[in-house]
Design a protein that fits this description.
It is built from three helices and three strands, in the order ααβαββ. It has a three-stranded mixed sheet with strand order 2-1-3, with no helix packed on it. It has helices at residues 3-7, 13-23, 59-71, and strands at 33-42, 78-87, 93-101. The protein has a single domain, classed as 2-Layer Sandwich (60s Ribosomal Protein L30, Chain: A). It has 106 residues and is of the alpha+beta class. 27% of the residues lie in helices and 27% in strands.
Length: 106
């Protein structure tokens, strides 16, 4: 999903189908917590190499919501997430890696 679409918090039917297809057959085990690493590839810099103004605050939370819905889990299983923007001149896309996360005990 292009970050520009995520910033507007909209997902087209085609994008939702694409996410569902990628999630098909993948299961998250209940009772565990997971870490999500999201890399947003897009046009983050201007032609002068300066940071482009973009509303990025909603990007991770909206993607977490979509992932949870597609995987059929509550978004509370994602105990930690990381977000990294990467500049590219090519088309915008997002990569997601979901791994086990062990909570530390005090």
């Amino acid at each position: 999903m292009p970050p520009s679409l995520r910033a507007r918090a909209t997902v087209t039917d085609d994008q939702r189908r694409d996410i569902l297809q990628q999630c098909r057959g993948r299961k998250l085990v209940g009772g565990r917590h997971y870490k999500v690493v999201m890399t947003f590839y897009g046009r983050w810099l201007t032609q002068d190499g300066l940071p482009r103004r973009r509303d990025v605050h909603n990007l991770p939370s909206k993607l977490i919501d979509v992932l949870a819905a597609c995987l059929g889990v509550d978004d509370g299983v994602f105990a930690r997430w990381e977000f990294e923007p990467v500049h590219t001149e090519r088309s915008e896309y997002v990569t997601v890696e979901i791994t086990d996360f062990r909570l530390r005990r005090a």
